[in-house]
Amino acid sequence: MVVNEALRILRTVRYDAAHFSVFLQAGSIAAAAKPGQFVMVQAGDGLRPYLRRAFSVADVTTVAGVPGFELVVRAVGVGTEALGRFAEGTPIPVLGPLGVPFPLDDLKQTDRVALVAGGIGLAPLVLLSRRLAERGIPADLFYGGRNESEVLKRPDFERFLGAHRCRYATDDGSLGKKGRVTDILGSALEAGTSYRRVYACGPLPMFRTLAAMLEAAGVEGSFALESEMACGFGVCLGCVLPGRDGRFHTICTEGPCLPPTAIDWSRV
Amino acid sequence: MSVDLSVHLGRLRLRNPIATASGTFGYGLEFAEFVDLGAIGAISVKGLSLRPCLGNPPPRICETDAGMLNAIGLQNVGIDEFLDGKLPKLVEKGATVIANVWGDTEAEYRAVVERIGDDPRVAAVELNVSCPNVVKGGMVFGNDPAALHALVAAVRSATRLPLVVKLSPNVTDIVTAARAAVDGGADVLSLINTLVGLSIDVETREPKIGFTTGGLSGPAIRPVALRMVWEVRKALPNVPIFGIGGIETVEHVLEFLIAGANAVQVGTANFRDPGVCGRLVRDLEVWCERHGVARVAELSGTLKTRPRPEKAYA
Questions:
Q1: What percent of chain B lies above the pLDDT cut of 70?
Q2: Contact present, B73 and B60 (Cβ < 8 Å)
Q3: Are residues B268 and A227, on separate chains, in Cβ contact within 8 Å?
Q4: Do residues B44 and B12 make contact, with C-beta atoms less than 8 angstroms apart?
């Protein structure tokens, strides 16, 4: 059930000039949200930014005992910047939870999975890692960005993942291995680690490389895709990506979580 | 005081003047969680073509100040899937349905309308002669009064349902287009469709939309739409009008009614707030109660203009 409701901002936590988390009161959305789903948030006065913005539900949690959920945001334009400026307690219109979540139900405790994040693509993988930890499914995190400041070091992440490894890569080598996040995943695959499924969210070049890598290795993937959208529930048809079947896939309703094999990456 | 919200647009009778604009409300069913489809005046569904249409390659949309550009390219399930799959469910939910249709050629337009025929489940047929986002058809008809007249006349004989023609604002004179449509047999006019626009990514120097240009919608276009509704109402006082363009609040609805519309279609606002149409129906009733308006239809065309000076003096 998708709900259109006004939810108060419980807390905004700034990590640096560009990155912050917004914690919203739970409403009906938090309990229903599954990893990989998203919400459409109206930030601002409704003229600029005009449209709502899509954000992954990054975590379902509590703030000082109040149930809520978290959005992890990188300020890149008018919408994301406006969202970071609201005072705590401000009610903002939120629609959700929306879209197809990451497939999880078919996993067994004997399966190992990989989580691959690029930059702000970490967002949907936080809730995913929490749910995996709850079910005792081992996961390895591969997380990359252009530099250290684009990689959000999250202590809670390592906590969810328990004994398992968080591996980092940056283009400039300022954190973890120098190179791309797909390089460190590739090394793990070459070293013989086998994954039941690779969950990923990040920028287009990362998706493109990863799609080819997984296909070559015969590993199943689930990508939380991003595309500019006006509505978030399948009517504007603005967020489509070209599919291998020749159709356009509506990312907000057929996705955002899709197997990489559904997309024709040569036409994206 | 009870308010009579019903309006008549010729033979098209609506329970209230709040309708949805084609292309912004899907096939209606997508909104069933957010709004009572039977409580809205009418639902103009996504533009239907003879065969399913895939639409344009992405990127298809971008935000602009107080609006957005789109070049979806009329992606739709096709008339047969609509009539067999979607329409029965819409009828079940009590919706008043306007079938918005388009084609690449006059023959295709006529063929789509023939499929609908006199189907009693459809309240009216709306011709889209004004889509700026397809290579053929669409606006070609909307921009050429002779072609528009011929198209409307060709379609007219294919149905006895009320025929609505949705006009393009991308013309020098909207009244010329309006007359051509009415002379061809249009019962009702819808105006306006989107205004052709361009938005550029200065880093890549590429258009933000794959189709290069797109249709501008949202609050940014409202004054243009209002002016065009007013012009057509003055020139053709007896032709019913759906006013469309950037409607978000009850004040905007009232502006269009006062300018000369008999009903409105709410478009891009549905993307921002899927419950907006239900709210507008309630807000309109409250406004009429507070202002002692017994029948909302009384408001139509009540603009009090001031005389314009004949010339400007130094």
A1: 97
A2: yes
A3: no
A4: no
Note the pTM of the prediction, 2 decimals. 0.95
DSSP string, B104-124: SSHHHHHHHHHHHTT-TT-SE
Determine if residue A126 is left, alpha or beta; phi over 0 gives left, psi from -120 to 50 gives alpha, anything else beta: alpha
Domain boundaries, chain B: 7-299
Please list every residue in chain B whose beta carbon sits closer than 8 Å to the beta carbon of residue A50. Answer: 63-68, 218-219, 272
Whether B28 contacts B77, CB under 8 Å:
no
Q: Which two tokens stand for residue B311?
A: 């010339």
Chain segment B205-247, per-residue pLDDT in tens: 999 999 999 999 999 999 999 999 999 999 999 999 999 999 9
Show the domains of chain A with their CATH numbers: 3-98 (2.40.30.10), 113-224 (3.40.50.80)
Under an 8 A CB cutoff, do B55 and A51 touch?
A: no
> What is B7-299's CATH number?
3.20.20.70
Nearest CA in chain A to B25: A235
Contact A248/B66, CB-based, under 8 Å? no
Residue where the block lists tokens 């973890």: A176
> Residue B111 and residue A102: Cα distance in Å, rounded?
43
pLDDT value of position B130: 78
**Residues of chain A scoring pLDDT < 70:** 156-164
